[in-house]
Amino acid sequence: MKMKKLLAVALTSAMTVSLMACGSGSTDTSSASASSAAPAAAATSAAAAATSAAAAATSAAAAATSAAADSGTLSYNSIELGTTGTDLTASIKLLTHHTDMLKDDYTGTSWSSYLAEFNKMYPNITVDIEGITDYANDSLLRLQGGKWGDIMMIPAVDKADLATYFIPYGTVDDINSTVNYAVQWNYDGQCYGIPSTANAQGIVYNKAVFTKAGITELPTTPDDFIADLQKIKDNTDATPLYTNYAAGWTMGAWDAYISGTATGDPDYMNNKLLHTTDPFRDYGDNTHPYAVYKILYDAVSKGLIEDDYTTTDWEGCKGMINNGKIGCMVLGSWAFTQMQGAGDHPDDIGYMPFPITSGSKMTATAGPDYSFGIAADTTDDNKLASMIFVKWMTEKSGFSYNEGGLPIAADDTKMPALYDSFKDVTLVVDNPAQSGEEDLLNKLNSDSELNVNNGGNDKIQKIVEHAANGDESFDDIMAEWNTKWDDAQSTEGVTAAE
Asked: Do the Cβ atoms of 403 and 334 come closer than 8 Å?
């Protein structure tokens, strides 16, 4: 588990951020000229009274804000946007993986645009945003270094440690009534993370390339998909499947498809996988993790990927697929808008279900992307300002929709058009682990070093390497993974079933 490994890393690499927040009020004063001393004295007395009253009002408002900011009473559902904290002056810092949104040439809605809108409602709350490129690893170092800021996208921490680093937004039951997909960062009945957006797992593709290749129906099975990739290779100049091997983190994205997408079972990822012996075996029906990873192995071994996978370019691939040089990429729905905005052919970009049919129906895992966590060691005023900003991002900003995500606010029904191909697909949300096993997946990941759905980029990259070199069969790779997983279960004393 990365968190355990990183605990041994020297904390001198973590940056310490100094933050300041204060409440303030201002009172306008004016002087009036008079022809006699008495009226002047009266005017002075009245002005003093007005000043005193204004000061009292300011003091009362500050007291109310202070009470609302108290970490013992602050909750997401108690905040009324446009009313709560309007007297608050604060400066807060957000750490984000969305470095692209900080660039002037970002084709979607940039961070600066969101902040400008936020400040129309809360002009005295300043939000400083820092983007981190290697977010999964660097954010953990920053987190453990302390004083990193006020809001971050929660990285892969043990759930038992959530209260050490973050404040709760409220009870799980309360948050579930107002926020969708708030299932990932719950512990001991409390919710510590609000999703920034939510994704359905599918494949981003170029519709014009598929048409030119002679593909008339979207694939529903692994065999159909591989056959379609071959058509793209035979009939177009496009790279059928772009792996994005060199980026690393894009490889780990394949893990997101092994749960609801490959099994149709909401209990698979956080419950059944933990107790299954040899989970990477061939189930014989083109389902489960075996079928997901075999698609990648087969595509590579058949030469249906880029000519040199070591030279892939994450930023460059966006324009390439937009301009018809790439057929498809296996990425979450969050990638759709980025590919659309990377060239002159946004209408050619489509999003399709991952080609596995479990039983008689296609399913797709749907769940939260990175979630906002608020620092436990910041000031009470900054906690309030941070929670206001998170709620504004959830309910007012349109961020999830703008980024091609599923609605986060429970009363939001606005679905992006990119999900048109999912009308007959059942979205499956992973159920949380049972009580007492909230961190078991992390432990098994650490012991096995497979890091399933937890930044396990290396193991997926090795699939590409072995398939390209032809030096290890796919079944041998899966057998190695099964051994590592079974040994990890034994180490943790897990009762496993076939």
From this structure: yes
Q: How confident is the model at residue 20, as a pLDDT? A: 26
409 beta partners: 179
User: Which tokens hold the place of 55?
Assistant: 């000061």
The answer to whether 71 and 107 have CB atoms below 8 angstroms apart is no
User: How is residue 434 annotated by DSSP?
Assistant: P
- Rounded Cα distance between 282 and 290, Å, is 6
At residue 45, the pLDDT reads: 41
Q: Which two tokens stand for residue 238?
A: 């496009």
| Burial group, residue 79, by CB count within 10 angstroms (0-12, 13-18, 19+) | buried
For 127, the 3-state DSSP assignment is strand
Closest CA to 89 of 386, 381, 389, 396: 381
Quote the tokens at residue 134. 């290697």
Quote the DSSP letter at residue 261: H
DSSP string, 248-315: SHHHHGGGGGTTHHHH--TTIIIIIGGGBSSTTS--SSS-HHHHHHHHHHHHHHTT-S-S-GGG--HH
Give pLDDT tens digits for 42-52: 333 444 444 44
pLDDT, tens digit, 9 for 90 and up, residues 425-455:
999 999 989 889 989 999 999 999 999 988 8
Nearest to 485 by CA among 319, 273, 177, 255: 273
Reading the block at residue 127, the tokens are 């939000």
Neighbours of 30 (CB within 10 A): 7
